[in-house]
Write a structure and sequence with these properties.
Largest sheet: 6 strands, mixed
Number of strands: 19
Radius of gyration: 28 Å
Shape: elongated
Structural class: alpha+beta
Strand order of the largest sheet: 16-11-6-7-8-17
Strand content: 15-25%
Oligomer: single chain
Number of helices: 13
Length: 477
């Protein structure tokens, strides 16, 4: 019987050795794990193999041989899982960095809910009003898509801005209009009536994101811009940028600075905003590159990478990391889904975290309190991501990141950051600041020229102080 177990053990040890060679190959070919960790893992497995082989030859006790067989099978399982995990991680990182580099604008033809026009054939030969905000390229593509799909051409007539045309639609001055869906939330901010319309046709227009990564050498500080857009569905969809955070990362000093920029900041909007004044959140309707350039100009710094998420992304990521805990300063009930948040430490899953960071109307300091809550949750997410407990949800997190974020950060940089944390496990000092200012109503808006919108003018002295803080964080050793 002992001899039989010895033969079986030798067979399993042989297969373990073959897997060890395969695992070693995958490990060293993969950039996911740093060299030090690779060497340590392989050295430990090699020692275990030698020990198992020696014990199998020397020890005659049947019970010990059964234990050796169990341990050998377990080692085979570990190596097999390791090969699978490395392959999976490599694929995910590849997909993240080979990201969908598009801004997708959704357009719809809308009518009033009580309109006599029920479907697309009813508007044949009728005037369909378009906004002056729409670009010629987008307009031409919409017409082309429509004629291909419906067999006839739209009869269009140019109007004013989206809000003006929407008001005309609601007052029955016009019957049909084309709406850029990224403006729907802006219209609702003033009218709360877009639910009184119905969509009879939808199409989309895509273009590549023009902002390329500005790579830095390993160990060099860099800026990541985080944009949270106010929409659900695909993260490539163009929408207002409601969360605007600059994350300054210094690997040498192990410091992270989170600079929050109020969504209503009154500033010049780059790109298709034509350098005209508007609130920062509106830059998102022109695409992520417009928001990035605007923030660069505002903070007088260079952004190296960006990450864009939406409501769905946020919920999925929070759930994937197992939720977060934050300190809540005041009791409130959220307007989104009516969650109740007590003072003190609160535990947040994805949906609760979304309600926590979106709420402003129930908070004493309104949007200022909301920004503070956003910073708390982001800090908690970063701390969770840097902790060893994150490994328990590894597979789920990888899948979530793959599907729910858009970034231009290359795989080499992602791997560098992960390996740096795994190899050194140094704690990071995370500080957060926001830029102070004062609210006004009545300042001009490029996107909504005939509206009285709330704007937030930044304090010049505080803006300069935050610019200096970002600069000092970047150069600190």
């Amino acid at each position: 019987m002992n001899k039989s177990f010895e033969i079986i053990n030798n067979v399993f040890l042989f297969f373990t050795g073959i897997l060890f060679i395969s695992f070693g190959y995958f490990l060293f070919e993969s950039s996911i794990v740093g060299t030090k960790i690779k060497t340590l893992i392989l050295f430990c497995i090699f020692l275990i193999l030698i020990l198992f082989f020696f014990l199998n030859k020397k020890i005659k006790n049947l019970f010990v041989k059964i234990l050796l067989l169990i341990f050998t099978i377990s080692l085979i399982g570990f190596e097999s899982f390791g090969i699978f995990a490395l392959n999976e991680a490599s694929n995910v990182v590849s997909k993240i960095t080979d990201y969908n580099s598009e801004n997708t604008k959704k357009y719809s033809i809308i009518v009033r809910k009580d309109s006599k026009y029920k479907n697309i054939s009813d508007i044949k030969g009728k005037n369909v009003y378009i906004s002056q905000n729409i670009s010629k390229k987008d307009f031409d593509e919409i017409l082309e898509n429509f004629s291909k799909e419906n067999g006839f051409s739209l009869k269009t007539k140019e109007g004013n801005d989206y809000l003006s045309e929407f008001k005309k639609l609601m007052s029955k001055e016009i019957d049909v209009m084309i709406l850029d869906e990224s403006y729907r939330s802006i219209i609702d901010e003033k009218n709360k009536k877009s639910d009184k319309t119905k969509i009879i046709y939808e199409t989309s227009v895509s273009k590549n994101v023009e902002f390329q990564a500005r790579n830095v050498k390993e160990g060099t500080a860099f800026n990541i811009f985080i944009s949270g857009i106010d929409t659900k569905g695909p993260v490539t969809t163009t929408a207002r940028s409601d969360v605007n955070l600059l994350m300054t990362v210094n690997p040498k000093s192990h410091k992270i600075l989170l600079t929050s920029i109020p969504r209503d900041t009154y500033t010049r909007i780059a790109g298709d905003g034509n350098n005209q004044f508007d609130k920062l959140t509106h830059s998102g309707i022109y695409g992520i590159e417009s928001t990035i350039r605007t923030v660069e100009n505002l903070l007088n710094t260079q952004i190296n990478y960006y990450v864009r998420v939406n409501f769905d992304s946020f919920v999925h990521i929070i759930d994937a990391i197992g939720g977060v805990s934050v300190e809540n300063n005041q009791y409130f009930i959220s307007r989104y889904r009516g969650f109740e948040f007590d003072e003190g430490e609160v535990n947040l899953d994805g949906e609760k975290a979304l309600a926590f960071v979106r709420e402003r109307y129930s908070l004493e300091k309104g949007d200022t309190s909301r920004r503070e809550n956003q910073e708390k949750v982001l800090k908690a997410m970063i701390n969770k991501a840097l902790s060893p407990s994150i490994l328990s949800n590894y597979s789920k997190i990888m899948k979530t990141i793959e599907n729910d974020i858009q970034t231009n950060m290359p795989s080499e940089k992602i791997v560098e950051l992960v390996n740096g944390q795994l190899e050194f496990s140094n704690s990071w000092q995370i500080n957060s600041v926001t830029i102070d200012g004062e609210g006004y109503v009545g300042l001009s808006s490029y996107a909504m020229p005939y509206s009285q919108l709330y704007m937030y003018k930044l304090d010049d002295d505080d803006l300069k102080m935050k610019r200096d803080l970002i600069y000092n964080t970047l150069i600190e050793n």
